[in-house]
# Entry
Amino acid sequence: MSELDLAAFIRDIPDFPSKGILFKDLMPLLADPAAFRASIDALAAWAGPRAPDVILGAEARAFIFGGALAYALGCGFVAARKPGKLPGQTIEARYDLEYGTDALQLHVDAIEPGARVIVLDDVLATGGTARAKIDLVNQLGGQVVGALFVIELSFLGGRERIAGADIHALIDYS
Ligand code: AMP
# Structure
């Protein structure tokens, strides 16, 4: 299944979660066995040669893609979580969303110094979330070897927020 075909499994939902946002709903893609497998295969094809030690994803949809991708690559998965969710000692990075602001946390020992990390998300929108994840990796002395997305909304300019990273998205909406 090509990346163009994958786009057929992404549903547009206007004005969610607030007016003016065109929400890209990936649930149909996840629910379809061939499309889900093809999306993980395509993510793995890009990520594999970058030899990550871990995939870093934030809740919630990146947990689904990230867990499957880590399994496919035989590497680890690290969860960045909203404040108050991780039980151990944490570090934090704040970020702006396309809709609102928030923060992400990591356990202080989640990433070894020098570890090769690919930050993963379902959607690159304004880039705030990805920027926060990269900042978290940097705080722990890890090395970001890729920023990987299923979808990029390139008209929002998120790439500029993570300039310098090696960036790839399976599907671009420009
Ligand atoms: P951003 O930090 O602006 O790049 O936003 C990325 C995060 O917000 C991703 O985790 C997405 O799940 C979510 N997101 C932002 N905009 C959209 C959108 N238009 N459709 C679906 N998810 C979105």
The domain at 51-173 is CATH 3.40.50.2020 (Rossmann fold).
